[in-house]
Amino acid sequence: MFHLRGGILNYLQNTPEAESLWEGDCFVFDHRVSVKHGLEQGEYEVCFGCRWPLKHADKQSPKYELGVSCPHCADGLTPERRSRLLERHRQVSLARNRGAQHIGQQPRRQKEKRYSTHPG
Fold first, then answer.
1. Which of 21, 25, 38, 120 has the maximum number of C-beta atoms within 10 A of its C-beta?
2. What is the pTM of this model?
3. CA-wise closest residue to 59 among 50, 41, 77, 46
4. Domain positions in the chain
5. Which of 59, 54, 29, 26 is nearest to 40 (CA)?
6. pLDDT digits (tens, 9 = 90+) for 33-78
7. CA 66 to CA 77: how far, in whole Å?
8. How far apart are the C-alpha atoms of 69 and 104, rounded to whole Å?
9. What residues form DSSP beta bridges with 34?
């Protein structure tokens, strides 16, 4: 176990691949899903149905449907959920074609429950 000064992403960005001890992709928690040396896009993508990271072989499965499902979640999708995912994928594609960003519905803020310590 080594401590990487500046973190793993700094190591992948600044260490030449020929000198690196890193093997494979590094998972990141943004739209890239994974990165390689030089912080180039990695081999993995995300399933929009279940958010599972998908490798190339997963996308070759008959259960994979872009924007909808993958081998990990396809069997558990209800028709309603599948329909919603198809529509979301359609909206994302339309926005991308317009050069816009699809934001989707913002999560609702939960109302805080306030408890009073004073009677009445």
1. 25
2. 0.64
3. 46
4. 1-43, 46-97
5. 26
6. 899 999 999 999 999 899 999 999 999 999 999 999 999 999 999 9
7. 14
8. 18
9. 27
Please report the DSSP string for the chain in residue order: ----TTHHHHHHHHS-GGG----S-EE-SSTT-EE-GGG-B-S-EE-TTT--EE-HHHHTSTT-BTTTB-TTTGGG--HHHHHHHHHHHHHHHHHHHHT-----PPPPPPPPP---SS--
CA gap 77, 85 in Å, rounded: 10
From CA 47, how far away is CA 54, in angstroms rounded? 7
Contact present, 34 and 53 (Cβ < 8 Å): yes
- The whole-number pLDDT of residue 82 equals 95
- Check pLDDT > 70 for residue 118: no
Computed on alpha carbons and rounded to an integer, the radius of gyration of the chain in Å comes to 21
Side chain identity, residue 68: V
Token duo for residue 4: 């990487």
| Two tokens, residue 12 | 């992948």
The DSSP element (H or E) to which 53 belongs, if any, is strand 53-54
